[in-house]
Every structure is written in C-alpha cells, then in structure tokens.
C-alpha cells in the first residue's frame, strides 16, 4: 500500500512537471515568433500608414514593428504622459503626442521618454515640432488597462491604453496601434530619449522546459530508490545472518610443560 502511494506521488509530480514544461515550451515558441517578427519588420523600408492601417481598428499583428510614414500635424494640447515606464534605469515617463493625418485620422506617437523630476513628474518635456511634419514610426499594439485598477493624475496614463487616449482625442483616433517615433522632419533641437529597442535574447524558457522534464524523471528515480531500499531492509529482517551472532568455541588449554630439572629432582627423592 505504501509503495502505491509512492507511485501516485511520483505520477502527480510528473504531471505537474509536464504541465510546467509545456508552458515553458509555449513561452519559448511565443518568444521565438516575436524575435522572427522583429527581424522581419524592424529594419524594413517605411511605407505610408495608409498601406498598413486603413481604418481605426484594423491593425494586423503581423505588422508589429513595421516602420510607417506619418504626415500631418501634432496636436500639442493633447499631449499625455505614461508613467512608471522602465527606461534609462528609472521609472520614466513616455511622451505621447497625437498626430492628425491628412485624412483626418489621429495616430498616437510615442516620442520617447523623459526622467522624473524631484516630485516624480518631469521637470521638462521637449516640445514636438509645430506645423506640417513627416514622422517615421514603428507600429506597436496598445496595452491593456492595469489589472490592479491603478489610476494616474490628470494629463497622465497608467499604461499605454489607446482607448483611454481616444477619450481625449476623439473617435478619429486609431486605437489598434500607435507609433514609436524613429525620426521627425523638421528635426527639433531637442527630443525625448529614444526608447530601448527590442531584445533578440530568446530567454531561458527552453532550458526551463527541459529542466522540468528532468525533474519528472528524477522523481521516479527517487521513488524507485526508496522502494528498493525498503525491500533490502525487509529482507535483512526476515533472514538474519546467524553465523555473525555465534561466538567461536574456546580452544582447549594445553597442559603446561614441567621443567626438566624439577622432574629429575622428584626422581631422586623417590629413590
């Protein structure tokens, strides 16, 4: 009965390891697909945004990181800041400035990041160019609202949630994707810090997946070792070695040899 329990424990442990291994394999596949997408799109030639997004909510995930050309005017009064962004080794702010295209649609442009000031707000934000501009930007999908429900002060956002931006800019705003600025023409004298590019590191997911498989095998090996040890102990209890418990019989003591001179003396006395 005890060995059956051992086997069930090993089986349950193996199932858990298999689940975690499959999860890590899935994450590795997702990461590999993202790296392949970056390699295919990141350095591609820019195309007009009209060739990629026709409406306001029809962005194809396969176009992520693709450079596009935006022509229009920045809406300076609608500028927003996204707080708590990991840039430059600090909790930075990313600067969002909507840009109105010639066809009336509005694209959210992430111009880069600025560090927080003494009171956790930027001391200064470089201004976007005024008038007609041509912007090269890489497309990214928007982010979800934070599950924690955290909010942000006026003029700021907790995440890059495009429908929240559209509440300020109107229904013409493209809510399926935004653009990370690569360049602006005319170029301003100062611009926010450039965002960190995507990494091509595949991460540890594949090695973790293999480790979980090895853990499952080790679980069975360990249970097998325990069962084998218990079997050996039971056999020793059933068949004890009696010879080890017996003491050897003492050897008979040889009579001591009398001294020859003493024997001769006894013979003379008897005579």
What secondary-structure arrangement, pairings included, does this model have?
Layout: H1 2-41, E1 47-48, E2 67-74, E3 80-87, E4 90-101, E5 106-114, E6 132-140, E7 156-157, H2 162-169, E8 178-185, H3 205-238, H4 260-270
Comma- or semicolon-separated keywords:
single chain, alpha/beta, OB fold (Dihydrolipoamide Acetyltransferase, E2P), 8 strands, elongated, Surf1/Surf4
Report on the structure:
This protein is 34% helix and 21% strand. It is of the alpha/beta class and 271 residues long. Helix 1 (2-41) runs antiparallel to helix 3. The chain has helices spanning 2-41, 162-169, 205-238, 260-270, and strands at residues 47-48, 67-74, 80-87, 90-101, 106-114, 132-140, 156-157, 178-185. It folds into 2 domains: 1-41 and 204-227; 44-185, OB fold (Dihydrolipoamide Acetyltransferase, E2P) (Beta Barrel), CATH 2.40.50. It has a 5-stranded mixed barrel. The protein is elongated and about 140 Å long. The mean pLDDT is 85. A hairpin with a 4-residue loop joins strand 4 (90-101) and strand 5 (106-114). It is a multi-pass membrane protein. This is SURF1-like protein. It holds the Pfam family SURF1.
- Would you report the number of β strands? 8
Question: Could you tell me the mean pLDDT?
Answer: 85
Distance between the termini: 90 Å
CATH class of the largest domain: Mainly Beta
CATH topology of the largest domain: OB fold (Dihydrolipoamide Acetyltransferase, E2P)
Number of helices: 4
Shape: elongated
Helix content: 25-40%
The proportion of residues in beta strands is 15-25%
Order of secondary-structure elements:
HEEEEEEEHEHH
- Uncertain residue ranges: none
* CATH architecture type of the largest domain: Beta Barrel
What number of structural domains do the residues give? 2
Q: Radius of gyration, rounded? A: 41 Å
Structural class: alpha/beta
Largest sheet: 5 strands, mixed, barrel
> Strand order within the widest sheet?
2-4-5-8-6
Organism: Microbacterium sediminis
Subcellular location: Cell membrane; Membrane
Pfam families: SURF1
Region (Disordered): 234-271
